[in-house]
Amino acid sequence: MPKPRVPRDLADARFVRELDDLGEELVVGEAVALDVQPAGIALRIAAALLDGLCLIALYLMILFGLSRVWPSGGDDAWAAALDIALLVAVLVLVPAAVETVTRGKSVGRYATGTRVVRVDGGAVGFRHAFARALVGLLELWMTVGSVALLVALFGARPRRLGDLLAGTFVQHERMPKRREPVVLMPAELVSWAPVADVSALPQRLENRLGAFFRGAAGLRPELREQTARALAAEVARYAHPVPPVPAEVFLAGVVVLRRDRDLRALRSRAATLSAATATATARPPGFPR
After folding, report:
1. What is the pLDDT of residues 136-163, one digit of tens each?
2. Of the residues 13, 126, 153, 177, which has the fewest C-beta atoms closer than 10 A?
3. Domain ends where: 148, 172, 196?
4. Taking the chain, what is the end-to-end CA distance rounded to the nearest angstrom?
5. What value does the mean pLDDT take over residues 43-48?
6. Residue where one domain finishes, among candidates 115, 142, 172
7. 53 and 138 part of one domain
8. Tally of domains within the chain
């Protein structure tokens, strides 16, 4: 049976990306998908320009300081070698050291709210930062960023060549805050809820339902209804019985049932931990204090 899809010519690109379960995502070793937002190309370009200006200013300042202490009649060969060593140190070692100490940050990334992380979501180390900076000497400085931009245009997450070789990517941390919508059990499904079974619903599909209700208020009515129908057709395969109600009403009932199930599981786990704590800290009868 073909899988119903949301029409991309009607939907907002970002909304469709949230509902698309085929999009590339970060998965850690425990097979848990991480909910992170990759930084866009515009943010990465802005951060790279700021970092580049800072490195150029640092290089000129050091060069000016050395020119004041370097003898005027010194060996030109040694001066050229020192100039090359200084350039490599500023363009490679300084960015690598800054990323390692700040755990993926830099001046430009502080300004744009982005951070370099490993592909599994962890903090980068010196090996990752050094590999990115070394490759950046070629793709950022020697080609004026053209190679990095060309490579970043391909793939679901914009990653330059240094990211691909180092196993890293840049995430956007400064996301706008938004109020989560409150989904209540529809009146039409009050009698359906006690006998309904939605335990087989995959977590990934449940996340897409949450994305739908978070963005439904900003959708056009025809797109909202079409998206709800497409999601309801997928959810119906995991819900028994399927009530004869509109698609969005059905989805709201499924979301509330799953939320209540998760809440009961958390409360049961908290009660179990409390009982285990009381048992572990209790003294045996007659044991002296």
Report:
1. 998 999 998 889 888 888 876 788 999 9
2. 177
3. 172
4. 68
5. 92
6. 172
7. yes
8. 2
**Within 13 Å and on the Cβ side, how many CA atoms surround 176?**
2
Q: What is the DSSP string of 98-141?
A: HHHHTTS--HHHHHHTEEEEETTSPBP-HHHHHHHHHHHIIIII
Whether 112 and 235 map to the same domain: the answer is no
Q: What is the pTM of this model?
A: 0.55
Q: What is the pLDDT of residues 212-257, one digit of tens each?
A: 888 887 788 888 899 999 999 999 999 999 999 999 999 999 999 9
Same domain, 50 and 127: yes
- Positive or negative: CA dihedral 126, 131, 134, 140: negative
Do 189 and 244 belong to one domain? yes
Q: Could you list the residue range(s) of the whole structural domain that residue 166 is in?
A: 34-172
Tokens 């991309």 -> residue: 8
Contacts of 134 (CB under 8 A, 6+ apart): 92, 96, 162
Same domain assignment for residues 59 and 141: yes
Q: Read off the pLDDT of residues 264-277 as tens digits, 9 standing for 90 and up.
A: 888 888 888 888 88
- What torsion, rounded to 10 degrees, do the Cα atoms 232, 237, 238, 239 define? 70
Cα(277)–Cα(150) distance, rounded to whole angstroms?
57
Beta carbons of 129 and 100 less than 8 angstroms apart: yes
